[in-house]
Amino acid sequence: MIRIWGRASAFNLQKAYWALLETGQSHERIDAGGDFGGLDSPDFLARNPNGRIPVIDDDGFVLWESQAIVRYLAEQYAPTLIPDDVQDRALAAQWMDWAQTILLPAALDLFWAGVRMPKEKQSAAFVDRALKRTIAALTLLDKELSTHDHLVGDSFTLADIPAGTCLFRFFEMKDIERPDLPHVSAWYELLKDRPAYQQAVMVPFDELVGKESF
Ligand SMILES: N[C@@H](CCC(=O)N[C@@H](CS)C(=O)NCC(=O)O)C(=O)O
Fold first, then answer.
1. Does residue 66 line the site of ligand 1, with CB under 6 A?
2. What are the pLDDT digits (tens) for 102-143?
3. Structural domain boundaries in the chain
4. Whether residue 71 has its Cβ less than 6 Å from ligand 1
5. What is the edge-to-edge ordering of all strands in the sheet holding 2-5?
6. How many other CB atoms are there within 10 angstroms of residue 48's CB atom?
7. What is the mean pLDDT of the chain?
8. Which terminus has fewer CB within 10 Å in the chain: N or C?
9. Is any ligand 1 atom within 6 A of the Cβ of residue 33?
């Protein structure tokens, strides 16, 4: 039994939880963080000294950092999510690192500025800058996805998980103008067909609106 800690609305939990559900392993998700608190308890800090979610415990093996968790779960329990070819594996690593360093910081800034920041404190200029950065990254993806259905080739792999996690919020956010991104949209439709994506990522975020603190 794999245990995973984190509130369902947490972006980084969603990445790791999506990967866990894809493995089909039996598991238990334990709410932690946000209004559930518990991240500063000695028990939790013994598992993750950063006091952050997600964390997993796989029969005594404890791991934090969402992308490390995605990789571990795929390698241990769902090798079909890992491309066979060494160059395709390198491309998967490339897209995961790119998502972590380029796409997700922009998309998370946009979400914080436009959703979590209370309306009266929102800066239209900041939202606009974050939106432009997010759209620039998604436009790059749109070009990439014009020649294949997923980030590495035509099949779903672990490379799709980090970048794919931000799509639900991007497409569900109100009051932003989205350009036409036909290939990203087609990819999003494929991800939305996956039960694991529906359960882990397509989580309404009403509880986060106007909520500046975790
Ligand atoms: N780099 C870490 C970041 C972890 C992180 O910042 N998690 C946030 C949730 S997305 C958190 O723990 N927030 C505190 C809370 O939810 O109370 C990862 O990818 O796992």
1. yes
2. 999 999 999 999 999 999 999 999 999 999 999 999 999 999
3. 2-80, 83-202
4. no
5. 27-30, 2-5, 55-58, 61-64
6. 19
7. 97
8. N
9. yes
Question: Cα of 72 to ligand 1 centre, how many Å?
Answer: 18
Return the residue matching tokens 């968790």: 69
Q: How far is the CA of 56 from the centre of ligand 1 (A)?
A: 13
Helix 86-98 vs helix 66-77: crossing angle, to nearest 10: 150
Question: Would you identify the CATH topology of the domain 2-80?
Answer: Glutaredoxin (3.40.30)
Return the residue whose CA atom lies nearest to atom 15 of ligand 1: 33
Burial code of 11-27, b = ≥16 C-beta within 10 A, e = fewer?
A: bbbbbbbbbbbbbeeeb
28 - beta bridge partners? 3
Q: Which CATH number fits domain 83-202: 1.20.1050.10, 3.40.1130.10, 3.40.50.620, 3.80.10.10?
A: 1.20.1050.10
CA dihedral 197, 201, 203, 204 (to 10 degrees): -120
